[in-house]
User: What shape does this take?
Amino acid sequence: MNAPAVAQANRSAPPLLSLLETRVLGVLVEKQHTVPDTYPLTLNALVAGCNQKTSRDPILDASDADVQAALDSLKTHSLVVESSGSRVMRYAHNVERALAVPSQAVALLATLMLRGPQTAGELRINAERLHRFTDISAVEGFLHELASRAAGALVVELPRLPGTRETRWAHLLSGPPAIEMTRPAVQEPRETGDVSAAEVAALRQSVAQLQKDVEALQGTVARLCAQLDIPPPGNHRTPSQ
Assistant: This one.
């Protein structure tokens, strides 16, 4: 293999990044769309974006030095470019060129890097500020393209968790995700149509038993009231009676 071919292969292969490096990339992509007037970002703006408490999973507490080290590492992969046109250094992402993916795919990757594993429906909603997908099938189309890249998959479809109806997707820029560390499924309230015939029969049996117990108690109360010569509940006498 000649030198140009080796360089091309290395450029196409997905790099293995740390959690903070993926967070830095995600923030750069996000802020490019949400605050274009201040993009490229300064180091201070990047640190604030990485440590943001909302729309982030997990929440980080990175220092200036940590983020600067992540930037230096990302520059070696050509994923970040540096500019010095002002008094402070500014940084921009280069994901589309470095990974050879379209802007729609970059939006999905950034959303996964910022918020962790998500379903296609969640990705469509959470990525809306970065790219507006027409429907879930469009999201799924780009996800499947990212998962089947000849140069190396960038996302993976996770196994469906118990109690869930949809599978989630995760990025692979930090390596294969640890399945046991993914957040547990939240049991959704079951709709009436999901109740089985056995459960309905058990509920009816419980109601019938409760009705019998109430009738027995009413009979006991009536007998006690007769013995004590007092009116039963709901049939109070007036003083004139």
